[in-house]
Amino acid sequence: MLTVRNLHARVLGREILRGVDLTIDAGEVHAIMGPNGSGKSTLARVLAGHPEYEVTGGEVLYDGQDLLAMDPEARARTGVFMAFQYPVEIPGVNNAYFLKAALNAVRMHRGQEELDAMEFMALVRDRMKQLDMDETLLNRPVNEGFSGGEKKRNEIFQMAVLEPRLAILDETDSGLDIDALRIVAHGVNAMRNPDRAFLLVTHYQRLLNYIVPDVVHVLTEGRIVRSGGKELALELEEKGYGWLEAPVAG
Amino acid sequence: MTDNLARYVTEHERARRGRFQGASPRLASLREDALHRFLDLGFPTTRDEEWRYTTVAPIVEQVFTLPEASPASTRVDLAPFVLAGDFAAQLVFVNGQYAPALSEMRDLPAGVVVESLASALASRPDDVEPYLAPAATVERQAFTLLNAAFLSDGACIRIPAHATLEKPIHALFVSAPESDRRATMTHLRVLMVMGADSRATFVESYAGPETANYFTNAVTQIVLAENALLDHYKIQRESVPASHVSTTFIRAARSATCTSHSVSLGGGLVRNDVMAVLDGEGAECTLNGLYFADQRRFVDNHTTIDHAQPHCDSREMYKGILADAARGVFNGKIIVRPDAQKTDAKQTNRALLLSEDAQINTKPQLEIFANDVKCTHGAAIGQLDEEAVFYLRSRGLSEPEARHMLIHAFASDVLQRMPLASIRASVEAVLQRQLERVLAVAA
Fold it and tell me: What is the mean pLDDT of residues B43-49?
């Protein structure tokens, strides 16, 4: 589904990704771990199309298409979703209104009919229940005044409504207490299926107790230095990142 | 006298031989007096503190003449300018003159008088004329003086004590080009007088065809007796070449409540002054402003809220959106007189700049002479949050949709303060069309 080859990217003139190679197949869950500043979030943002990140080399194929040539909105419509590490507060934009516009943009791209208000509310209520979310959040401005946990849950809720094919979760676990983490993990696990893939960006192994990955990658200084099964995460938890040597540049 | 002032003398002489004939001696002398004061004062320049950022050169340098034709003979398609809504009465003015054939009086309660100022001046001058003078004699207000010098028509509304008007009254002022396409000027006067315990909603709107060049100089006087309650809207959708200068005087007696919404969407050179005097204990005034300008347009809003008596509240929120090379000015003055203890005044103004070339000059001005008062003000100038734009796009909204949603969100708290849903919808529709154009050009 996703093939990343020798990806280089920089932000504000600083090179962060220095040749990332990664292949994710449909139905798989991959976790990317790594120390602070290793480029984990940069990778997530580059895949989502953040305009501040400049790709300086390499390629990304999504279902055979050149993902990097697409606008962020085109990526979203074709099924790429990123749950933000820091969800943006948007005063004055109603959460439900925004999500309905987003869902209908995605549905139109898929050749589906737009949902009317009743159908939309039925879908949204169902997904909120799954994530144990307070329905009043729907009628508030997007993320405004939400607690850290509510913001992260709102991201997973949006994902559950938009039903992407490739979901990238950028440190969704940070700032969540254990109960919220369980709920979020349950929401993600409920969406796992043979057509959908997940890329979990995380600093801690904890999340992976609840969402068990198929593959774990370690990103250090802008490159994937090791890949393995779920046991690799436990090894990292025990030993830290220090024992993995950074690759020699070249 | 400079040539540009002399032109106004010529026009005044012409009007004296024509439309001014039959005026009472009191009205004739009010006009003469105002003309002379205007000539003494001249047009404001940027050396004048109140006009520091605003050059009125487009008005000074052009030749504007009084419209010739009567409304009946001016062909104008009103459809684009009519505001949707269920109005108790709709007065239509074409080129400054009342057009009875285009106007409608539907269901006005007994005692409510809605008529043209020309007809009120003819039929009950003693009722009306005393109200007109005070605004004419405001010192150092060139445009108000000019308006008084040419005063002849406008809207005149009287709501008797204890009357409640369920439906709004609408006065529509349309400028239409004359057959010879001369640039015309209109000096409109609106007089809204409300008796004690009365309630009403009043909408005044100004508009003209897209390419027409003209000069609107409007003065509105709102006088509220004790405990009267008014919801007032001024909707300005003039053409891009047009100049629009307006002055709104509000005087609120004890426990009266005035909410005034000023929406400025059109015009090449726009200056709006709102001057509210809270003249009785417990009076309340809310000023809401929303303005949009693109291209090289200029929009200046000056407001003054004068707390003359104790225990008065005022709330003010102005928001502006400036695109392309548009420029804006906001100046909000709050005066608290020595007797006005327990004043509670709050002012907010925010501007959103959509391009590098757009500019705003903003200044709060507090003049407080009492000690037991609460006055706050806040100003903010900003651009769209690009992280928010990306957030919306990352969910599938196109870039123009995302920007439009965020700009609308910026304006939404001012829009939501408008109780009249039909007007709010009209304003949103006009703003949407303008934003679509701006965002399409940017995309």
Answer: 94
In sequence order, the 6+-apart residues with CB closer than 8 A to the CB of B95 are B67, B69, B71, B74, B174, B175, B176, B178, B184, B186
List the single residue in A with minimal CA-CA distance to B391: A88
Q: How many H-runs (helices) and E-runs (strands) does chain A carry?
A: 8, 12
Where does the pLDDT of residue B71 fall: very low under 50, low under 70, confident under 90, or very high at 90 and above?
Answer: low
Say whether pLDDT at B346 is over 50. Answer: yes
Q: Would the pLDDT of B267 be above 80?
A: yes
Residues of B in contact with A100 (CB under 8 A): none
- A vs B: CB pairs below 8 A: 77
Q: Which residues of B touch A110 (CB under 8 A)?
A: none
Helices and strands, counts by H and E, chain B: 9, 20
> Hey, is A242 helix, strand or coil?
coil
Sheet with B154-159: list strands edge to edge.
Answer: B113-116, B154-159, B184-194, B214-224, B243-252, B269-278, B298-307, B327-336, B359-368
Residues of A in contact with B391 (CB under 8 A): 84, 87-88, 90, 142
Residues of A with CB under 8 A from a CB of B: 48-52, 71-73, 75-77, 81-82, 84, 87-88, 90-93, 98-99, 101-103, 105-106, 109, 141-142, 158, 162
- pLDDT given for residue B69 in this prediction: 63
Phi, psi of A122 (to 5 degrees): -60, -45
Q: In the predicted model, is pLDDT for residue A250 greater than 50?
A: no
Cα distance between residue A40 and residue A17, in whole Å: 9
Residue B384 has pLDDT above 90, yes or no: yes
Q: Indicate whether B412 pLDDT > 50.
A: yes
Q: How far apart are CA A28 and CA A200, in angstroms?
A: 11
CA distance A2 to A6: 13
What type of residue sits at position B355? S
Chain A residues in contact with B406 by the CB 8 A cut-off are 90, 92-93
Tokens of B412: 């939404």
Q: Please write the tens of the pLDDT for every residue from A5-53.
A: 999 999 998 999 999 999 999 999 999 999 888 999 999 999 999 999 9
Asked if B394 lies within 8 A of A71 by C-beta distance, the reply is: no
- Nearest CB neighbour to A162, from listed B385, B395, B406: B395
CA distance A50 to chain B (A): 7
Distance CA B49, CA A101 (A): 47
Domain boundaries, chain B: 3-384, 385-443
Return d(Cα B166, Cα B420) in angstroms, integer.
11
**Residue partners of A139: CB distance under 8 A and separation at least 6:** A94, A95, A96
Contact A90 B392 (CB under 8 A): yes
CA distance B318 to A58: 49
Question: What residues of B are in contact with residue A51 (Cβ under 8 Å)?
Answer: 386, 390
When CB atoms are compared, the residue of B395, B401, B409 closest to A158 is: B395
Q: Which residue of A has its CA nearest to B398?
A: A73
Q: Choose the closest CB to B397 out of A52, A82, A101.
A: A101
B370 touches chain A (CB under 8 A): no
Complex ipTM value: 0.96
DSSP calls for B220-287: EEEEE-TT-EEEEEEEEE--TT-EEEEEEEEEE-TT-EEEEEEEE---SEEEEEEEEEE-STT-EEEE
